From TrEMBL:
Record-level Gene Ontology MF annotations: electron transfer activity; heme binding; iron ion binding; oxidoreductase activity, acting on CH-OH group of donors
Binding sites annotated in the UniProt record for heme c 3: 338, 341-342
Entry cofactors: heme c
Listed GO CC annotations: membrane
Any Pfam family: Cytochrom_C
Tagged with keyword DNA-binding: no
Binding, heme c 1: 64, 67-68
Protein name: Cytochrome c, mono-and diheme variants
Cofactor info, note text: Binds 3 heme c groups covalently per subunit.
Keyword Iron: yes
Length: 435
């Protein structure tokens, strides 16, 4: 009996403590004097037509439509379900409908949402809405986005509420979360860098919200301190590679032109975008101006570190005597099913079929994306720069998990590639939620 009580108390103590910290913080924040916004930009007179156009462009850069549109529903009317480990978030209607959308909002309300993560009534918003990155957007740009949203056709669409698990459904817990992880503030230019670099950083860190995927998250869904260092996307079975590491998607060895081409068209001579990243380019990046894409490429290239350590090592779960057979079988399957497109030496065809030899997506330590693409196939995004992409067939119906494991292990270790071996368990784990 006594032991029971003790165990239940020890199990619950983090919640008890969190609860009290929460109350303290609420009191603290409620009494904190309001600090005047130091960023009082003087926008001057604005031409409403130009402002709306600019807003439409910026909304593309932020891909607001991507999340705020459900399949088969009008754009921006919300209702899209985003599944995360905290539950399912349903995006709100952000058309100017008075009853179901944001028709009653003014510029200040909108700024409060985008910059501070608070709804019009002061309700704290969940960071499934990436205001943790949008906070970097300037007031001028926020006003332009709002002017554009105001110009949309109001759509009366009441969306179902989000279905968030206990205890995360208790919104005031967000006070704690925000105190720990949310840093409010407009992007501050780095004066030691030129204008193009700063424009790129502003877009990547702010509206582009690249860090919403390209970072690892802790149990509270907060990104770890380091930005763009790669991580599994919450709620989607995809790995968004590090944009700083040379071993993953750091663009150290790519020219600015190639990075820009890849971001804008979804394909380049040595890489191709797939899955959720293909969607980012299809819905957002392909619409950005050449200057903005180039600026992002300049910034991304500057992030890439030139490290060489940390190469994957051979998986020890497989006995060495099995290893040769494993790779031999994988090689045979490759010859029959993959070689026609990807080439006998994994050389691919530039801008059509990605090379697998020397491809970091294939060799990086997480085999998740490679397994997924072999299971499900896919298309690079259709863009103006690559309107009719060639696709890859799915192999899930053709192969057993063991065979997929052999093929993936083979391409990770053929033609000078070096990656850990993949097991049937890895393959099984990669199934599910295709996002
Ligand atoms: C990754 C998905 C995602 C993207 C991208 C996104 N949103 Fe949202 N947004 C959400 C979710 C989810 C919520 C609801 C959060 C909550 O319930 O706390 C939300 C809430 C909002 C709200 C608050 C609405 C209300 O009634 O309180 C506004 C305003 C908004 N988003 C505008 C935008 C704009 C403008 C953009 C583009 C710059 C954008 N969103 C991009 C997911 C997204
Ligand atoms: C919705 C999640 C998501 C967002 C947002 C996102 N990415 Fe990605 N990104 C991914 C995933 C998943 C991959 C791995 C698949 C692939 O390589 O195409 C990836 C891959 C990449 C790659 C490597 C491509 C390759 O084949 O080597 C680059 C570069 C990249 N992203 C840049 C960006 C930039 C810049 C942004 C912000 C504008 C961004 N990503 C936003 C999910 C995302
Ligand atoms: C009909 C041509 C075709 C065949 C056959 C084919 N692929 Fe592909 N493969 C493609 C295309 C096109 C893409 C780009 C898909 C995308 O971006 O979604 C691709 C992408 C890939 C990628 C991801 C590369 C990257 O940079 O992200 C891997 C890994 C891959 N294929 C492996 C295989 C393996 C293994 C087989 C055989 C089991 C195979 N492919 C068979 C055309 C093919």
């Amino acid at each position: 009996m006594k032991r029971l009580i003790i165990t239940s108390v020890t199990r619950d103590w983090p919640f008890v403590i969190l609860f009290f910290i929460g109350i303290l913080l609420i009191l603290l924040l409620a009494t904190k004097p309001v600090i005047a916004d130091t960023l009082t930009e003087e926008p001057g007179p604005v031409d409403p037509e130009l402002q709306r156009e600019r807003g439409a462009y910026l909304a593309r850069a932020g891909n607001c439509m991507g999340c705020h549109t459900a399949k088969g529903s009008p754009p921006f009317a919300g209702g899209r379900r985003l599944s995360t480990s905290f539950g399912i978030f349903v995006t709100p209607n952000i058309t100017p409908d008075k009853r179901t959308g944001i028709g009653d909002w003014d510029e200040d309300d909108f700024w409060q949402a985008l910059h501070e993560g608070k709804s019009r009534d002061g309700r704290l918003l969940y960071p499934a809405f990436p205001y943790t990155e949008y906070t970097k957007v300037t007031r001028q740009d926020a006003d332009a986005i709002f002017a554009y949203l105001r110009s949309l056709q109001p759509i009366s669409q009441l969306n179902p509420p989000s279905d968030i698990h206990f205890p995360y459904d208790f919104r005031p817990l967000l006070y704690i979360w925000r105190a720990l992880y949310f840093k409010e503030g407009v992007y501050e230019p780095d004066r030691s860098k030129d204008e193009e670099w700063n424009r790129g950083a502003y877009l990547v860190q702010g509206l582009g919200h690249c860090n919403a995927c390209h970072t690892s998250r802790n149990l509270l869904g907060a990104s770890r301190d380091e930005t763009l260092t790669g991580g599994q996307i919450m709620g989607a079975n995809w790995y968004a590679p590090s944009l700083t590491s040379r071993l993953e998607a750091g663009s150290h060895d790519w020219s600015i032109e190639e990075i820009a081409e890849l971001l804008a068209t979804g394909i380049s001579k040595s890489a191709v975008l797939s899955g959720p990243m293909g969607t980012v380019t299809r819905q957002s990046l392909q619409y950005l101006s050449q200057q903005d894409i180039r600026a992002m490429a300049v910034y991304l290239k500057s992030l890439a570190k030139n490290e060489t350590s940390g190469m994957s090592t051979i998986n020890t779960q497989i006995a060495p005597e099995d290893l040769r057979m494993y790779l031999q079988k994988g090689g045979k399957l490759y010859e029959r099913h993959c070689q026609d497109c990807h080439g006998a030496s994994g050389e691919g065809v530039a801008n059509i079929y990605p090379a697998l030899a020397g491809n970091r997506n294939v060799t990086m330590s997480s085999p998740l994306n490679t397994i997924r693409i072999v299971l499900n196939g896919g298309y690079p995004p259709a863009t103006t720069g690559n309107p009719r992409p060639y696709g890859m067939p799915p192999f899930q119906q053709i192969f057993r998990d063991g065979e997929i494991a052999q093929i993936v292990s083979y391409i990770r270790n053929a033609w000078g590639n070096r990656g850990s071996l993949v097991t049937p368990i890895d393959v099984d784990r990669s199934k599910g939620d295709s996002h």
